[in-house]
Amino acid sequence: MNATFLNYVDGTNVYDLTRAEIECRRQAVQLTGFLKRHVPGFEKAYITRSAPHIGVRESRRFIGDYYLTYEDFLQEAKFKDVIARSGFYADIHDPKATGGMHAPGKGDASKSRGDFDVPYRALLPQGIEGLILSGRCISAAHEAQASLRVTGPVMAIGQAAGTAAAMAVQAGVAPRQLAIKDLQERLIEQGADLHQGVPLAPIPTPRQHA
Ligand SMILES: Cc1cc2nc3c(=O)[nH]c(=O)nc-3n(C[C@H](O)[C@H](O)[C@H](O)COP(=O)(O)OP(=O)(O)OC[C@H]3O[C@@H](n4cnc5c(N)ncnc54)[C@H](O)[C@@H]3O)c2cc1C
């Protein structure tokens, strides 16, 4: 049950993180009491464990050779150096709301129609050589990150980042010098769907939240 929530937390500050862990564990205990008292079937329920540390959806990110924007998300941008794709809606959690769910912003960011490409350039931090980014810290605006940070896309991004790192080492080149076609071919061999030339799948009905 994805139920506890806390906003006004700086995910880069250890004191805030500690406060969040204490508060969310308090919420879990409170929620358990509620379920036991009011929801049939939970009468004998008890907590066995909680997460070892607090989960944070968004904090620091790099600026890379490409910066994915909200427009890229809305327009389902396609890039020649695609290494992964994200088809999830923008899972934006309103930092000001007490309940915490969606803040669509302009347009309706909660309804992605298809998917957008994650370009290899978004994994290469500006001004740093020899480093490949992976996961939710890649170069993307808040709204684009709200889609690509979910587990499916970050797994695909991680696969691409790891494959690129290995190929760069084998070829004896910096990640920026890696031939993108070779990387894409290797990813496709591994089963990645970079959807080159393949028509978009039908639009799924968006879930309410993740
Ligand atoms: C409350 C919450 C609910 C979510 N719900 C969903 C959901 O329903 N569906 C969904 O798809 N996504 C969901 N997400 C989003 C998704 O889980 C994360 O965005 C995603 O896991 C991020 O992946 P990542 O690889 O970038 O980072 P992480 O999964 O955080 O992985 C980073 C790893 O690096 C390790 N690490 C950190 N520092 C070091 C170090 N110095 N040395 C070695 N290792 C280190 C950490 O231990 C960790 O294992 C949720 C996120 C949160 C916080």
Characteristics of this structure?
mainly alpha, 210 residues, binds flavin-adenine dinucleotide
Structural features, described:
- By secondary structure, the protein is mainly α.
- The chain folds into 2 domains: 1-56, no CATH class; 70-189, no CATH class.
- Helix content is 32%, strand content 4%.
- A two-stranded antiparallel ribbon has the order 1-2.
- The longest helix has 25 residues, at 14-38.
- The termini are close together.
- The model is unreliable at 103-107 (pLDDT under 50).
Q: Strand pairing plus helix content: what structural class?
A: mainly alpha
> What's the structural domain tally?
2
User: Any ligands, ions or cofactors bound here, and which?
Assistant: flavin-adenine dinucleotide
- Beta-strand segment tally: 2
Q: Total number of helical segments?
A: 5
Q: Tell me about the largest β-sheet.
A: 2 strands, antiparallel
Mean pLDDT: 87
What is the strand content?
under 5%
User: Rough shape?
Assistant: elongated
In brief:
It contains 5 helices and 2 strands; from the N terminus they run H-H-E-E-H-H-H.
SSE layout and pairing:
Elements (H helix, E strand, L loop, with lengths): L13 H25 L31 H5 L7 E5 L29 E4 L22 H7 L2 H21 L8 H10 L21
Antiparallel strand pairs: 1-2
The site of flavin-adenine dinucleotide has 11 residues, from helix 4.
